UniProtKB/TrEMBL annotation:
Belongs to the BA14k family. Residues 1-30 form the signal peptide. This is Lectin-like protein BA14k. It comes from Roseibium aestuarii. The keyword Protein biosynthesis does not apply. Has immunoglobulin-binding and hemagglutination properties, and can bind to mannose. Essential for virulence. May be involved in LPS biosynthesis or polysaccharide transport. It comes from the Bacteria.
């Protein structure tokens, strides 16, 4: 890929150099074609280099990450399992892990399902 950019930069520099060297000189110093040649080469190198630059950098895509499956709505783990203890403790502040009951807003104790 770099080779094609370098080739186009060199081609652009040479084309502008030839154009600058063959253009008629409109000054009193008609013998300064060497300066025009050097100026044309520099201008061609700048323009060719600018045209040869890649237009943007695209970073590689990040590696795919594993996402845990989302549980179905209304999921409740089996009673007395470790998931059940975590679920009920997180859901109800008054959950008692020894009995499996929690205090509802109505004032009665209910089993966590």
């Amino acid at each position: 890929m770099f080779k094609s950019f370098a080739k186009s930069a060199v081609a652009g520099a040479l084309a502008l150099t030839v154009l600058a060297a063959t253009a008629p000189v409109q000054s009193a110093h008609a013998g300064n074609s060497g300066a025009a040649l050097v100026g044309g080469f520099v201008a061609g190198a700048i323009v060719g280099g600018a045209l040869a630059q890649p237009r943007g950098y695209y970073a590689p895509a990040p590696a795919p990450r594993y996402h845990h499956p989302v549980r179905a709505y209304g999921y409740r783990p089996a009673p007395w399992s470790p998931e059940w203890y975590r679920y009920c403790s997180a859901r109800y502040r008054s959950f008692d892990p020894r009995s499996g009951y929690f205090l509802a807003y109505s004032g009665e104790y209910r089993f966590c399902r």
